[in-house]
Design goal:
Layout lengths: L1 H24 L5 H8 L5 E7 L8 E7 L5 H5 L10 H14 L2 E7 L1 H7 L1 H14 L7 E5 L8 E5 L7 H24 L5 H4 L5 H10 L10 H4 L3 H26 L1
Parallel strand pairs: 1-4, 4-5
Antiparallel strand pairs: 1-2, 2-3
Length: about 260
């Protein structure tokens, strides 16, 4: 019986951590960039986003054009920003900024996210980051996304774990957004933004229940909407409106 229980626990843990274990096994290199250069592309921009799953604040995207020689970044341990410590990210951020040919960062705020949905807001942020580059790329390497941009593009699944250019964009965007969250923590205290960066941790959800959402929370996201008194009122008004319509329709039928 004990062995069966042990096996079940092991399977649960494996299911919960399989993706992270897989990502750690991937090698982040300049192989995608070198393949594109073989086909004649020279100005390659890596593009990535941060904050897509957060309950608070903007989604941030970065676009980065690096020089051809990237071995130094590889030796420095550049990879997906989520697999790095804050100290490692900030050190790499400084190094990327020193050597990059061009860097652009763009944000799309919570109000726009609620209006157009997070997928479209992410694409908007990425597109704005590309458009903000000081030099025109001839190819975009994008983490799992395609953009409405005339430039040739490669959509690379798990791109921030495979491409140094995308990983560089991931680090730039992450360091930028994390700094924003620490600043917002001083303006909107009580949520723990400096700690969880706006993501839906148990502590953040408890704070939402205790004090409700603020103006920068994403009100269309379920955990925020569930504790948003304005959303509850909207649903009640809509329910009453529909109920009254039904009554009118039934009354018309009785006539």
């Amino acid at each position: 019986m004990a062995s069966v229980t042990s096996i079940r626990v092991s399977k649960t843990v494996t299911a919960a951590t399989a993706k992270q274990r897989m990502l750690k096994q991937l090698v982040c290199s300049d192989a995608p960039e070198q393949a594109l250069r073989y086909h004649g592309f020279r100005i390659i921009a890596g593009v990535d986003e941060v904050g897509r799953g957060a309950l608070f604040g903007p989604v941030v995207a970065a676009a980065v054009i690096l020089p051809e020689r990237l071995s130094g970044l590889a030796r420095a341990g550049l990879k997906d920003s989520k697999q790095l410590t804050r100290e490692e990210r900030e050190k790499l951020d400084r190094r990327i900024r020193r050597m990059a040919l061009a860097i652009s960062v763009a944000e799309v705020d919570a109000e726009t996210i609620d209006r157009v949905n997070i997928y479209q807001a992410t694409r908007m942020a990425m597109l704005a980051a590309v458009q903000g580059l000081s030099m025109e790329p001839d190819h975009l390497l994008i983490d799992a996304m395609r953009l409405d941009h005339p430039c040739r593009q490669t959509k690379l699944i798990y791109g921030d774990s495979l491409s140094l250019s995308i990983a560089a964009a991931s680090v730039i965007a992450k360091v930028h957004r994390d700094a924003m969250m620490r600043a917002f923590d001083l303006v909107h205290p009580g949520y723990g933004l400096a700690s969880h960066k706006g993501y839906g941790t148990p502590a953040h959800r408890r704070a939402l229940v205790a004090q409700g959402p603020c103006a920068l929370h994403r009100r269309t996201f379920a955990p925020v909407r569930a504790v948003d008194p304005d959303a509850v009122l909207e649903e009640q008004v809509l329910s009453d409106f529909l109920f009254e319509d039904a009554d009118l329709e039934e009354g018309a039928a009785w006539d």
